[in-house]
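Onboarding guide, step 5: your first structure request.
Type a short instruction followed by the sequence, for example:

Predict the 3D structure of this protein.
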Amino acid sequence: MQSIEFNDWKDYFITKVEELFSGSEAENILKQVNWDTWIFTPGLPPIKNDFSNIYQIEAESRASDIFNQKPKEDFPKVFEAWNTNVKLVFLGLIKKNLENFTEENYTYMRDTLNLHTLYNSEIKNIWFQIALNCNHSDVVPFVKEFLANIGRMKYIRPIYASFAKLNKDDAYETFQANKY
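The system replies with structure tokens like these:
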């Protein structure tokens, strides 16, 4: 592995833009890059990035809808379309406010979003903690399967902690069955 020089990177960038876009599109993109300003001028970059929090705002709004028992009809499709990070923000808001999370909220989210069975390990990790911390034993078979198949400590530690609050003996038995 070695470092590259600016001109090597610039040549690579130009080649990639020309591969990915048609002739006139590529030409327009490349005309917009002021290489001297970006590379050789001291100070901040010439373009101010917009780090909009549109997804944070939407996640907060949708979490509020859940807590108020008024989820919008399109929520399942919206949730599915969100990338994992937005889903994690949303579930993190739910997890932080469990005192406001009702049985109806739980049932709606479980059944409408299929959170017990769908989604990746990061989503399941937070969802299983929410379910266990709210004393929902219906999640236990899914938690046991998850714990049997996932070895990453960042996932299993918090789940075992939540599982132990629900049923310490069952959590211990599951741990013993899956340790290696």
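Each response can be followed by summary notes, for example: The chain has two domains: 6-40, 59-178.
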